[in-house]
User: What shape does this take?
Amino acid sequence: MKKVDVIIIGGGPAGYTTALTAKNLYPDKSIVLIRREEKVLIPCAIPYLFNTIKTIDQNILPDDPLIKLGVDIVVDEVTSINLSNRIVKTSKGLEFEFNRLVLATGSKPVELKVDGSNLKNVFYIIKDYNYLKNVIETVKEANDIVIIGGGFVGMEIADDLCKTGKNITIVEMLPHCLLRNFDEEFAILAEEELKSRGVNIKTNCLVTKIEGNSKVEKVKLSTGEDIKADVVIVSIGVRPNVDLAKSLGLKIGSLGGIEVDYCRRTSNPLIYAVGDCVERPDFITGKSTFVQLASVATSDARIAAMNLFTLSAPCKYVGSIGAFSTKIGDLTFACVGFTESRAKIEGVDYVVGYSEAIDKHPTILPGGKKIKLKIIVSKPTQEIIGAEIVGGSTVAEYVNTLGMLILNRMKLTDILSLQVATHPWLTPSPVAYTLHTAALDALKKLKK
Amino acid sequence: MKKVDVIIIGGGPAGYTTALTAKNLYPDKSIVLIRREEKVLIPCAIPYLFNTIKTIDQNILPDDPLIKLGVDIVVDEVTSINLSNRIVKTSKGLEFEFNRLVLATGSKPVELKVDGSNLKNVFYIIKDYNYLKNVIETVKEANDIVIIGGGFVGMEIADDLCKTGKNITIVEMLPHCLLRNFDEEFAILAEEELKSRGVNIKTNCLVTKIEGNSKVEKVKLSTGEDIKADVVIVSIGVRPNVDLAKSLGLKIGSLGGIEVDYCRRTSNPLIYAVGDCVERPDFITGKSTFVQLASVATSDARIAAMNLFTLSAPCKYVGSIGAFSTKIGDLTFACVGFTESRAKIEGVDYVVGYSEAIDKHPTILPGGKKIKLKIIVSKPTQEIIGAEIVGGSTVAEYVNTLGMLILNRMKLTDILSLQVATHPWLTPSPVAYTLHTAALDALKKLKK
Assistant: This one.
């Protein structure tokens, strides 16, 4: 039996970041990270294993930084947790007595429930080295690939795979892909970018059946269409993995994720939970929500780490803003906070500000890309509550400035006062910077 | 005599942005912009006229957006302003009665005071179409070019010119170039980048004399060295152009710029001043300071425009943070707030946080660039008061997130809680995002 200060269960980005942050802040505390996987995949880059990244071994979250700090990594499975004497046992017979426990048990793919979904070569994006290795090898041999689900994971896989010349089809049940993150006008741009690279996109369309003999051969759609398929990749969302939390009697939220407080403590104050397995209040409404993004998961992790032994009361957790970016073809798309359609659903009294500009000035400088920005502003408060942006690679950091505006509840007039660095080669002109122009557009509409 | 609501004097980015913002916010007000120049140069891109931008006419601030809005552009010189009856007269005999006056009279280059500085082919960066056209044409014919002053303008000119194969030398009196904006370790990186492209850099070095017969032939340095020169470009700073303000009896600040309040009103409440001609409090210390950057000038302009007719009291002007970026070779450098050396001079009790990461994850993805970030944190408040960053092109927008942290007086623990969007192709990993890593580094040092 080994006495340790902290046991973290789960080695994905949330568990990893908890260990990294906690050991940096409390070098004298002993921290054990228990995970099932020998090698942990970098989850965000899984879509690029299909073509760009040549071997799966190049996409492994490095253990070195944790080991150097003195985190004890145990590759093993937790078999029992006794809360009264705080003892964790593992399948290899290890026993630990802990002071704090952190659950970072992640998520599982939502399963497709149609006839034939159990056929050979119907795959999910499961963050498991051996499973994914097989998926990738099978895809390499395949020619006709159907991706079910046009969220960002499906779109990114298609983006990477379309460079191989294979025949790729995305099937999405909503009117457009990416609608969880973007409004229609941005979603259409992303679809057009993929279509121009040869990807087939079927929207407004359900999969009714998967057919094949020894393995998948075709996918039948609600439109009556059949699509030839050597491989099907199902990517229709994830749900929190709360089996362990349930077995510990922890409170599960209304959406099915682990309930945590601002400091990331579960209903048992010695147990924390972070990442995809928890549900949290939305920044705008305070309603419980699932956001399974690295931006939120690693924020959880750092908050939990800071609050592991003494609370940083009042803890400044402020709710999820869901900051996110993706790259489709040559375009970078990013969003944070509410989309316009979400604002409508939630009944917000809002106004929209738009702007467009080339990301160089003068615009004749070589390599310029158009940035298109949309901001959603609450009318009663004049605060920016959401933003969507598309452009070149700089947009990926731009969105974090937009997130900062939302988190700090900045108003349109604050945005117009903002000092923003610009440069001829790198940004729109300071006299027409997209953020100011969009704020001005919204302010004009508010004054009407 | 024409009655108008607003007269803006000066057509650079500050005057331009004042007109653009004011006419958007108050479409019913008549706005006249009076400027000397037929064509206004985009000032930030002047360094790229020496090679990249093929003709000076491609670097003109477009009048169209102002004209479309209904701003009246008058190319003329103001000859007299009578404050008692509010009448502006011009050299072409025009007369306007105004309600509000905005001075955007900009800056003039600081002159080099050594023997020979009046020789032919010794030039300044004067934002005048015909003057600069001649400079550029003369430089095109020249082979040996000496740039006096290693600030960002001098560095950018060298960066653009070194691609032509000409012999370029920068002379800087301080121990390194760019020290007004960066600490030594960043300045050295910028110098190395230019040196690797063939630029000669002489630091710790004064120009004692310029020699030549009919025109410049050589530059003599305090080290005793002579440098051959067909052309000399002097770029040793700018000073506010306050001639008009002085003639109007407006209060001039201790540094020689026009004094303005938070709303950008001068000592005469009907007269506003914006851009390079004013001095303003620094965000960190509140001390009066000159920051002649587009980020600050256009912020002035938008603040003035919002407050032209009714004050947005309390006006949320918060002081200059001097957000700024530049591109030297393949590297983007950016900074905001205090450098470490400035913090030392001001007597701040500070700690520094460092981080480095590749801007892609996994780092084997093609095209990755190293980002190096340094943050300066006030010990007593734990607030970030400055940041310097170098990396690929995304750094140019990243610095605006850093500016937002400073403006919102965010603490290290707030930064660790931050949700930051990341993407394999576009940013460091979410488990090692440079901002979080630097904050963690600073927090560890604070705890010691």
About this structure: Chain A has a mean pLDDT of 97. Chain A has three domains: 2-107+239-306, 111-236, 330-442. Residues 2-107+239-306 of chain A form a domain with the FAD/NAD(P)-binding domain fold (CATH 3.50.50.60). The first helix of chain A runs from residue 13 to 25.
